[in-house]
Amino acid sequence: MKDLSRWAWNEPPAARGGRRRFATWATVRCVTALLAFAALVAGCSRPAAPRPERPRRPAADDGQSAAPAPRGTIGVSLLTLDNPFFKVIGDAITATARKSGYEAQILSGDKDVAKQGNQVKDFIVRRVAAIVLSPCDSKAIGPVIAEANAAGIPVFTVDIPYRGGDAKVVTQVASDNFGGGREAAAAMIEALGSGGGKVAILHFKQAESCLLRVAGFREAVEAHNKDLPAGTAAIEIVAELEAGGARDMGYKAAEDVLQAHADLRGIFAINDPSALGAVGALEKAGKAAQVVVVGFDGQPEGKEAIRAGAIYADPIQFPARMGEEIVAAIVRHSKGEELPAETLIPTRLYRKADAEDDPDLR
Q1: Are strands 342-345 and 130-133 parallel, antiparallel or unpaired?
Q2: How far is the C-alpha of 317 from the C-alpha of 184, rounded, in Å?
Q3: Among 40, 48, 175, 205, which is least packed by CB within 10 angstroms?
Q4: Which residues share a beta bridge with 104?
Q5: How do the pLDDT tens digits run along the chain, 362 residues long?
Q6: Residue 158 · residue 322 · CB < 8 Å
Q7: DSSP state at residue 78
Q8: Rounded to 5 degrees, what angle do the CA atoms 7, 8, 10 make?
């Protein structure tokens, strides 16, 4: 076998130089090709340049302003949501708050001051922007309102006021309950006429608003009795029973008073649910024609009963307006405005003729 290495080393110098130049040139071409390939690969993997965004046409002005910037949450605890009256207040607060940039959380105190107190404590922990209450007890709710005061959270009341002295409420929005009680007495006097007679009151003493209604009713009846014309009999308030502001309790209370006073001529119930309960008891006893019922509120079912003649009249309230007014008060307070201690919304006496012309009942 030939010794190739020896052959290589014995190669003439000129030949070896040519081979070296060839190898150098081949190497350069190889490296160049590799670099070109790498550039090609890099170019393929490079993300495409973003397309210029197409100009957008301005949105048409629909006449509505943009939604207000968020202001926080309004924590609301109402006496009970079983009563449609408070449901209307809650719905009005929710809708009006949204327009003003707030969210509202509506809770039912279920007529339980301890439960309502816990709800307020939770609002405080959550650092709500404001608290709205229809107190389950107008005095016992004071300590937890004081806790909200200490936390710097403003407290407002709607429909039912706070009557304690150990805490601060910014303002109260409510019906003129005392004036409404006087209107209820005017309706009872009108219905009983010159014959007068015995009257019972179905109460809910836990609520300050109901205490005011009964006080107004009693004052107007007493004034009527003092100035009776000849041949007119007095109206005698013979009983005041707890009816809880509820239909079932109103039914039971009316049954009890009918047993005690078979010659009863009238019942004043502090709200529509208890008035409707009394109507049921009167119908069962066969005394619907003998006893006049005057309610309070002006809820749809109460108005229907007035149109049917089962309830004589109601001083009607405006719960939606209460909800709107309380949110307006919160907004004004947030701007540093001074507010009155109380804003009272007058009631209006609503009779059968009003119900027959009421478009909402058609």
Answers
A1: unpaired
A2: 12
A3: 48
A4: 74
A5: 434 333 333 344 444 444 444 344 344 354 444 444 444 344 444 444 444 333 333 333 344 445 555 789 999 999 999 999 999 999 999 999 999 999 999 999 999 999 999 999 999 999 999 999 999 999 999 999 999 999 999 999 999 999 898 999 999 999 999 999 999 999 999 999 999 999 999 999 989 899 999 999 999 999 999 989 888 999 999 999 999 999 999 999 999 999 999 999 999 999 999 999 999 999 999 999 999 999 999 999 999 999 999 999 999 999 999 999 999 999 999 999 999 999 999 999 999 999 999 999 97
A6: yes
A7: E
A8: 65
Residue 161 to residues 27, 190, 232, Cα–Cα distance (Å): 98, 30, 38
Angle made by CA atoms 217, 218, 223, in degrees to the nearest 5: 100
* H/E element, 6: helix 4-9
Token output for 115: 């439960």
Cα gap 242→154, rounded to integer Å: 33
- On whether the CB atoms of residues 180 and 213 are closer than 8 A, the answer is yes
3-state secondary structure of 201: strand
pTM flag (> 0.70) = yes
* DSSP-assigned beta bridge partners for residue 313: 294
173 neighbors 352 (Cβ within 8 angstroms): no
Tokens 């339980």 found at: 112
Query: What domains sit in the chain, N to C, each tagged with a CATH number?
Result: 72-175+320-345 (3.40.50.2300), 177-317+351-361 (3.40.50.2300)
CB 220 within 8 A of CB 185: yes
Positive or negative, the Cα torsion across 122, 125, 130, 135? positive
**How far lies 43's CA from each of 32, 34, 38, 40, 76, in Å?**
17, 14, 9, 5, 63
SS3 content of the chain, % helix, strand, coil (to 5): 50, 15, 35
